[in-house]
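Question (not urgent): is this output format expected?
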Amino acid sequence: MAEQAAYSNAPEANAVHHRWLRAVEQDIQQEYARLHAEARSDPQRAGHGGEGTWARILSDWLPPSYEVATRKYIIPEEGNDTFETDLIVFRPSYPRALRAREEVLASGVAAAFSVKLTLNRDGIRDGFERAARTQRGVKARIGSPREEISPPFPVGLLAHSHTWKRADPGPNFGVQAICVEMDKLYVKHPRENLDLLCVANLGVWCASRIPFLPQETVRHLDPEAAAKHSPGSVMTSIMELNSESPTIAVFIAALYERLSVADPTLRPLADGFKALGDSGGGGGMPRFWGLADVFSENVRVALSQGIKQLSDPNWKAFY
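Got this back:
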């Protein structure tokens, strides 16, 4: 009976889970603060853009099979556009014998990031340009909305701080506005978008992709776009993730969400973050695309006819 009483007075499992995750969030943020302080005290490490801090955070908070490397060149599957990438996360299946090489096959990349010490307008521009160039070098996948609208791996931009000082309209608004501008300038297909942007002392932004919205729904959001695209549109946006959680924890949760698209073994943990609101919620300026501008004919027909297999991760309503 005593054991029963002790059990009944224990916190509910969800409360325990929630408290545990809050503690983990603080651990992530404190580790980032410690590593960043160490890097700032070392001029050589600081001169490398501070990628060492982010490499340690990713190494410590991603599964051990997701190894992180710095300063690699991604070999394109199409074209010859190669350039140095600050951080690479290897796919678990990428052979160890190839990981020490300066160049990495695109098929071996799970995620790629450029890193800035202090983010400004040109840093965001550079991040969007690099994301678009990287994804254009990867052969387009055909067969499902996920394969055709989403990139095979996310490309992101990480920064320790920013240059925006004005309180009105505020640095968050400034970042959002520049992201919308750069999206229009560089992104020619939804998969070319910058997937994640994290400014450690400011916030997290991510790309969202909705494969199909009916024309009537689009009409309420953008009558001009609805008139152009029948029977519906693709919608993309750059969203700021609004969350009370520490910025680095929100970023890690968002990254798990991205990685789980290609690796279903990460889905339970990604869902765990999302269920507690740690991936945040947000909004952004929508951009509408014609179905023919994004999808192959078979996928266009399936989407326009409402043939959706929402239980299939390749046919989700949102990416």
